[in-house]
Specification:
single chain, mainly alpha, two-stranded antiparallel sheet, 2 strands, about 5% strand
C-alpha cells in the first residue's frame, strides 16, 4: 500500500472515529489517542507495522528505510481500521 492509499484510508478512519466518538458522547480528535496507542506495549493490533521497503524514488537521494516500530517512511504503519476505529472512539 502506498502513501497516497494510506492517506485516503486514515482520512476515512478519522471521519468514522470522530462520528462514533461524537455519537457516544466522547471527545472528537484523534491525535491524543494515536499518541496513546503508539506509546503502548508496541504490540498493537491497531496498525500493520511496515518493516520492509523505503521511500527512495531517485537513486541519488538515499531516502529512509522502513523498520520495526515508528519510522519516517510509514510513521505508525498502515491503519487496521477494524481495530483502530473502536480504539479511537472509546
Amino acid at each position: 500500500m502506498t502513501t497516497r492509499h494510506v492517506i485516503s484510508k486514515i482520512g476515512g478512519v478519522t471521519t468514522w472515529s470522530n462520528a462514533r466518538a461524537k455519537r457516544l458522547g466522547g471527545k472528537v480528535g484523534i491525535n491524543p489517542k494515536l499518541h496513546a496507542l503508539a506509546s503502548g506495549s508496541g504490540d498493537s493490533s491497531d496498525f500493520f507495522d511496515v518493516t520492509t521497503g523505503n521511500n527512495q524514488l531517485d537513486p541519488s537521494v538515499p531516502g529512509y528505510s522502513a523498520t520495526t516500530g515508528w519510522d519516517p517512511v510509514t510513521g505508525l504503519g498502515t491503519p487496521n481500521a477494524a481495530n483502530l476505529v473502536p480504539a479511537l472512539a472509546s
